[in-house]
Amino acid sequence: MTNSDARKVLMPIYNPLPIAPDHGEGCWVFDDKGNKFLDTFSGIAVSILGHNHPAIVNAITEQAKKIIHTSNVVEVPQQISLANFLNKISGMDQTFFCNSGAEANEAAIKIAKLYATKHDNHNPKIIVANKAFHGRTLGVISASGNEKVKAGFEPLLPGFLQVPFNNIDAINELAKAHQDIVAIYVEPIQGEGGINVPDNGYLKSIREICDKNNWLMILDEVQTGIARTGEWFAYQHEGIVPDVLALAKSLGGGMPIGACMTSGKANNVMQVGNHGSTYGGNPLCCHVSEAVLKTIEKNNFCDHAKKLGEYLKNSLKETLTKHKSVVDIRGKGLMIGVELDHPCREIMYTALKHNVLLNVTGVNVIRLVPPIILTQDEADLIVSKLDEIIAEYSKNI
Question: Of the residues 37, 41, 133, 160, which is catalytic?
Fold first, then answer.
């Protein structure tokens, strides 16, 4: 089927690259014509263990032979097992399972609203960051800083106060001006906003402000979570724990699963009847998710992502800074952005000619979020290929 065929039967929401993946192996994807591509963005930071990983394949097969779906009308033992593992690695206490990052973030917003109501705050405000992206549902686009995703969907959900990302002074100013703030809600590293990495101590300062004011600290780790940055969760780089945590993407290694977790004063805010999901926390996705986490733990992939990510970032800096169009190279672990001085979505097409799958975010930032099973040889190949791709692309703009 061609793109023109797809446009006849699918809503024209996407503008896909002219490649139809047929199968994958590790960090490589093969199209229906047998061409081989190095995957540098893992289905947008989803396929954390790469493609066709035996732990995921075996877990899917094992659970599918037993039972796939039951609903939350009955007990789901796989949920409890997965939640216990998540508690162990996160320092959180309670979990609600859903199907996506947007749903996890919607649940986080609802928790903040309920928390406010229980504290007699009936007009709660939530501090959010500019350039933030939390998903595509109506509630989370209201909290996002990307005006493009909001356009045409007004009126949006009120109650969000926007500040510049990585600006503690702006948060303190809002704290003085508003008495009805209930939470601060940010990404530890902005993904869709352009791989924006805050200063060291940013999250710790937010934690202190929230503690001082009895606010909730909500972290969207949909993209940064599950070993991506070199720790299980990005907040662990600063030795703090949030009150509410949104997860998805790498959590399932490719299976659709999300989670909203709570700790401390956010525990037990949600009660029976406040929220729910038909598919969320189904036995299949939970069993696969736990297999993903156990594989990461067994192979010490957090440490691997930290060390190889630093190696890749430094190698990119050494090689790519000769290009006049390269403005910055930044990131943490295997979440790296190469910023160019102009919009560069078309570079994804140039990359295809070099047998590389690239993704662009924040208009002008090449987003590198490869599987964390990436080898040093494959990291070197990313550097050399990107050098060629940027050189070719720059000649044609």
Answer: 133
